[in-house]
Specification:
This protein has helices at residues 16-30, 47-59, 91-95, 98-115, 124-133, 176-182, 198-206, 219-228, 243-250, 263-267, 279-291, 293-307, 312-329; strands at 2-7, 34-39, 64-67, 83-87, 118-121, 141-143, 164-168, 189-193, 210-214, 231-234, 254-258, 272-274. The chain is α/β, with parallel strands linked by helices. The radius of gyration is 21 Å and the shape is globular. The two termini are 14 Å apart. 39% of the residues are buried.
């Protein structure tokens, strides 16, 4: 089987989709699938770039055409009978307003969903969001979750002199301010992955919080951060999936995450679920893990069990079976 992955123009600031599908590429190749990567022509969205990319993609079709995410508008000249679009989330629709919202909703979602027969999403949450906006598209949408995107390793977890908490992301939806408020007065160190504003640095200093900051962590730095941490605190207000949950579970971190979709489904039983709007619940969860070794051991065991179903081999097989279904229906 020949598959073309159509990807957005490479940008070092946005690599999550590319990282995911590079791992799936390797797994599918092991299973005998012939995969070619084809990239968006122009990094800046414009009428010229729109036309060039759609024409270029048309020339590079194969047995299965797979738009891997973000550039939904690039489907228009592809054969609808053997083209798949993966949508990672629909949050931007709600964040926009006015003409910009209408344009984005129409070009990025309405028209691609109308054209195509086959759409995958990475969580039931994303499917629910899309069907609320476009109820007529429900039967076109299949959920295939993300896979673990860091290599699974068996290693000895270090014994830290005091508990180390990991916080990933700095955008408002990542809820970093509540995490920082929650650890005031608790004797912990926090590793923060993401850009810290001057205001947050001042807050950390004024409250004598012991912290390390990676403005933009490399793959190796991120893996080491997981290895060095005891707890991932991830009470996000919105996610399309919530990959850090799986990464932390694979790297023997206890997980605290939100009691909302999709985080609660992704975490399985291997996490403490909290109301992301409650600093008190976040603080209590941190203290519970620190003070209760039995709870900590239970979370680690259940987390390791949960990760198995998101192994790249498992998710690659789900996509291959989906492709086979498409070819059988062609």
């Amino acid at each position: 089987m020949k598959v073309t992955f159509f990807l957005r123009f490479p940008n070092p600031k946005f690599l999550s989709i590319e990282k995911l599908f590079s791992i799936l590429n390797k797994e599918m190749t092991k299973k005998g699938i012939d995969i070619k990567n084809v990239y968006e022509v122009d990094p800046n969205f414009s009428l010229s770039g729109f036309m060039k990319t759609n024409l270029f993609f048309k020339k590079n079709q194969s047995e299965i055409n797979h738009i891997t995410g973000a550039i939904h508008w690039s489907v228009f000249l592809l054969n609808r009978k053997n083209t798949v679009l993966t949508i990672h989330d629909a949050g931007n629709i709600s964040e926009l307003s006015g003409v910009k919202k209408y344009f984005f909703k129409f070009l990025w979602f309405y028209l691609p969903l109308k054209k195509l027969k086959y759409v995958t999403v990475i969580s039931e949450k994303t499917k629910k969001e899309l069907t609320e906006f476009f109820p007529w598209a429900e039967n076109k949408i299949t959920v295939i979750p993300n896979c673990l995107t860091i290599p699974y390793q068996d290693f000895e977890k270090p014994v830290n002199s005091k508990p180390v908490i990991l916080a990933v992301g700095y955008y408002p939806k990542k809820n970093l301010d509540r995490i920082l408020q929650a650890i005031i007065g608790i004797d912990v160190k926090i590793i923060i992955v993401g850009l810290l504003s001057p205001e947050r640095i001042k807050f950390l200093q004024e409250n004598n919080i012991d912290y390390i900051n990676f403005e933009r962590a490399s793959e190796d730095e991120l893996i080491q951060a997981y290895k060095d941490s005891d707890i991932l605190c991830f009470p996000s207000l919105y996610e399309g999936f919530g990959l850090p949950i799986l990464e932390a579970q694979a790297m023997k971190c206890c997980v605290i995450t939100s009691n909302i979709s999709p985080m609660k489904e992704v975490a399985g039983d291997g996490a403490i679920l909290v109301n992301p709007n409650s600093m008190e619940e976040i603080r209590k969860a941190i203290n519970d893990i620190i003070s209760d070794q039995e709870l900590k051991n239970k979370l680690l065991k259940l987390g390791q069990q949960n990760v198995i179903k998101y192994h790249p081999d498992v998710i690659a097989e789900q996509y291959i079976n989906y492709y086979k279904m498409i070819l059988n229906n062609k």
